[in-house]
Amino acid sequence: MDTVNLEHLAGRRVLSLRGKSVGHIEEIRAEQDGDDMVVTEFHVGIFAAFERLSALALGTAVLDFFHLRHRDCLYRIPWDKIDISDPVRPRLRCTLEQLSQMKGGFESKRGAKSSKGLGIARWSTVLRFALAVFLCAAAVCAVLWYMTAARPPFGEQDRQFEGPGNVAHGKLVFAAGDCASCHATPGQPDRLRLGGGMAIASPFGTFRPPNISPDAVDGIGGWTVTDLANALIGGVSPKRDHYYPAFPYTSFTSIKPDDVKDLYAYLKTLPKVSGRVPPPDPALLFSIRRSVGIWKLLFFRQRSTAARFDGDPLHDRGAYLVETISHCAECHSTRNAFGAIKPGTRFAGGIDPQGTGFVPNITQDRLRGWTENDIARMLKTGETPNHGRVGSSMSDVVTNTAMLPDSDRQAIARYIKGLPPIATPRP
Amino acid sequence: MKKLLEISLGIVTSVGGFLEVGSMATAAQAGATFGFQLIWAILLGTICIIFLVEMAGRFAAVSGHTIADGIRERFGFNAFLWPLLATLLVNFMVMSAEIGGVSIAAELATGIGFQWWALPVAFLAWLFLWKGTFGFIEKGVAILGLVTLCFVVGAVMLEPDWRQVAAGAVPSLPGHDAASYWFMAVSILGASISPYLFMFYSSGAVEDHWDKTYLGTNRAIAGLGMSFGGTISLGVLIVAALVLGAHGINQVNDYHQLPLMLIPIFGFWGFVLLVASLAIACFGATLEIGLQQAYLVAQGFGWTWGEDLKPRNDPAFCGVYTLSLLLTAIPIALGLDPLKLTIFSMAVTAASLPLTVVPFLILLNDERYVGEHGNGMISNAAVILIVALGFVLAVVSIPLQILGGS
Amino acid sequence: MDLLRDLLDKQVLDRKQVKIGKVDGLVAELRQGKPPRVVAVELGSITLARRLGSRPGRLMAWLAARFGGERHAEPHRIAWNKVRNIGVDVEVDVDVRRTGIFDWQDWLRDRVIGRIPGA
Question: In chain B, whose CA is at the least distance from the CA of C49?
């Protein structure tokens, strides 16, 4: 069926056989024909517009006032005299002589159709475009500015962090969180001197974990427990800046408030280290901290976790450790162009974000041959079931996991064993 | 008796709609700078809005259409897009100014900077729209708005020279600052003839299910209500002229000068009254404009609309006012000076008027919509003349004002 | 009947008097030797955007297909024989919930508006 959209005809200029304009279509008349509604006439000319607007008297008066009534004002053209197969370019099918017999009942002097309105139309297009661009830009900027602000999730008065923390338990949180691997001062053996400064290279620039020793000037000695909670859960610094997600608050965000409290108490007991690390050197795109706000809007859901719980206390403890505290997915997944974990590749390994190799797949796609005990033993000793040893940064991780109680390593193993198999993505 | 109650309620409502930050700020500025000389602008603006509001009510009562519906149907969507965009933009600016007005009132009352109030004010307004019904908003705001009558009382208590006041009703050439004189005249016209006001009025008439029996009520409400509103503007101008002039302030360029206006008359209570007037008038206008934005978009695209529907049943409509409240609060929250924004947006309003008023006038002469209740020659001529005057003045004086800079 | 004056851009009501949009477009069938026959009215943003030009039209169609899926890549059509009454408003014998016209409003309700307390 050959169809055409009639609304496109409204206001279109009709061209004669020789390409001369005879006026604009202002009305389409239709009549009932049995069950059908069929188009019978097209009305062309400025008076047709007045007629449509019921403003004939007014329009005539205005035209007369400006002495503009020297044009062909109204044609009633039968349906078969205009070719509307291309509704954007309607064409007359008859000669101008035939056309002059289709004039409507208005007195009119002969005269060429003026091409007034062309200049106005072009102007208005420019203006319309400029206005639209400006409005959109302003609106987008304003909304983005508002939405990308760093808002700490907890106020200073938050009751859930009240009371002293448990130092011994905090030490375990510290170990499970693998904090020392990044924050310990490089080039010296004491993993509890948290001066920071190890360079972490990434496609987004070089980041240096800061000094988190309890030094009041250079470290976090001046922090309150809510500051720590805001950093871990909200990714927001006490100065209300966004942290770069090189700091894995994307995982930490679901940490339990009691664990924050204990960790805080433990960090307070560590030796003070003075000296600040150089500021991060992010790639151009992220050199404005605010842009991290956009990143967070896209990829960060505060206090959410990817963990699956099934009610088994050991498994659920493992889920909490793997997904939140130990943030395993941060290394064992592939990241997208913006540096966020691709959800479909969680734990399936991929290129090390630091660019130093390939991080193994730890889903059942690759670990099928490992038992829970194999995984737990690896986390304690670093030995793999085929008599190898884990290498590179995992060996640092094992230094920490070795300090955990057996039950926690077993919990991690149980959860890892339960990960559904996902094929390793091609690099 | 019922009709009488309806009329008085309607009058009160239209006062609430009429008096907003624009009228107050422009009248205060004009009074301080030019004494009684610009009274004619308030009179012209009031006459014009009386006609327009009456037409809007008549159109809605007879045809069952709102103005936006009518313009879209009669002129087609492509032509309707222009008034739509212009009105949305103007409404955006004016609404921002209104939020600024409430924020300033809050700053005057608490001492906390106005930009901190913008978002809470927007949120409160949103809460009213979200939970309230049309009648609640219309009537609640209107009755509280009566507090602005304090300006009229103040003007009478100051015992101005009424002959001079009457002389101000005749347009005269300024003795100084010609550019700013005409710019202020335009701003006053823009503040009185707000497109949102008569468009809102027509939506309200449809929401209240008006029919032809309401034509008389409509005429009374439009005439008395708008005159009432104009009187209050006049009161503001007279008070500003007498009080601010006596204190040597001949240019209001800071909202903090406003409380001075009522203090010599009422003492400390003058301060309270001014803050209350400003807050209530602007808050009411914020609600009405927010609602009007949603009406306009919904009517323009043929969506379901109505303030009495639950948000759940009318998500698009609620989405529009939610979004516009949020967006309009932002300029104020970023610290844009509400007074400058107000004056400027009023002038832009005047410049945009032909876009909305001309199609509207054509509709009101269309028998298919209004039958035998079409416009008479006088109302057509009056509206065309005043709007044309406002437009010409705006086109001339806005560039002058921007270039001359104040 | 004058199609542009009496039909185009009028409010459309469905069977239950719900305002479902406006007549954004009119589709006619071209027939050999016979006058064009109106076969449907079109509603929706794609038709509307096409009236502003071919580029906005393509953009809107792409957007609609991108966010609404294949179902929304074409404008919504209501066959002419469903059009019941053309007066101040145009009434059609269709139940809007059986069409895709309100899909975006449903989305808005389920994802945004409905989640705000008190909705």
Answer: B78
Instruction: List, for residues A11-65, the tens digit of each pLDDT value.
Output: 888 888 888 888 888 889 998 888 888 998 888 887 777 777 766 666 776 666 6
- Residue A91 near residue C37, CB atoms below 8 Å: no
pTM beyond cutoff 0.90: no
Residue written as tokens 């009932």?
A32
d(CA B304, CA B298): 7
The SS3 assignment for B1 reads coil
Query: Percent helix, strand, coil in chain B (nearest 5)?
Result: 85, 0, 15
What are the CA-CA distances from residue A308 to residues A365, B256, B260, B296, B403 (Å)? 18, 58, 65, 47, 64
> Mutating which of A1, A2, A4, A6 best tests the C interface, going by the most C Cβ atoms within 10 A?
A6
Q: Do C112 and B315 touch (CB under 8 A)?
A: yes
A7 touches chain C (CB under 8 A): yes
Name residues whose C-beta falls within 8 Å of residue A220's C-beta, 6 or more positions apart in sequence: A211, A212, A213, A214, A227, A228, A267
The answer to whether the CB of A290 falls within 8 A of the CB of A148 is yes
Q: Report the relative pairing of strands A36-44 and A75-78 from DSSP bridges.
A: antiparallel
Which chains touch B (3+ CB pairs under 8 A)? A, C
Bridge partner residues of A12 (DSSP)? none
A170: exposed, middle or buried (Cβ count in 10 Å: 0-12, 13-18, 19+): buried
The sign of the dihedral angle between the CA atoms of B58, B62, B65, B71 is: negative
Residues of C in contact with B315 (CB under 8 A): 105-106, 108-109, 112-114
ipTM value: 0.85
Per-position pLDDT tens, chain B of length 406: 667 777 777 777 677 667 778 888 899 989 988 889 999 999 999 998 999 899 999 999 998 888 888 888 888 888 888 889 989 999 999 999 999 999 999 998 888 888 899 999 999 999 988 888 877 887 787 788 888 888 899 899 888 888 888 888 888 877 677 777 888 888 898 888 888 888 888 888 888 888 888 888 889 888 888 898 899 999 999 999 988 877 777 777 777 788 888 888 888 888 899 899 889 888 988 988 898 899 899 888 888 887 777 888 888 888 899 999 999 999 999 988 888 888 888 888 888 888 888 888 888 888 778 888 888 788 888 888 888 888 887 887 777 666 654 4
Identify the closest residue of chain B to A134 by CA–CA distance.
B89
Residues of chain A in contact with residue B331, where contact means CB-CB under 8 angstroms, are: 142
Does the domain at C3-115 match CATH 3.40.50.2300? Answer given as no
Chain B: residues touching A (Cβ < 8 Å): 74-76, 78, 85, 89, 326-327, 330-331, 333-334, 362, 365-368
- Nearest Cα to A283, choosing from A354, A201, A361, A213? A201
Residue B127 lies in domain? 2-403
The total of other beta-carbon atoms located within 10 Å of residue A65's CB is 9
Question: Of B367, B360, B400, nearest to B48 (Cα)?
Answer: B360
What ranges do the domains of chain C cover?
Answer: 3-115
CATH of residue B41's domain is 1.10.4160.10
Query: If you ran DSSP here, which 8-state letter would residue A12 be given?
Result: P
Cβ-based interface (< 8 Å): residues of A facing B: 10-11, 53-55, 58, 128, 131, 135, 139, 142-143, 145-146
Measured in angstroms, the CA of A124 and the nearest CA of chain B are apart by 10
Q: How many CB atoms lie within 10 A of CB B383?
A: 25
Amino acid at C59: L
Domain count, chain B: 1
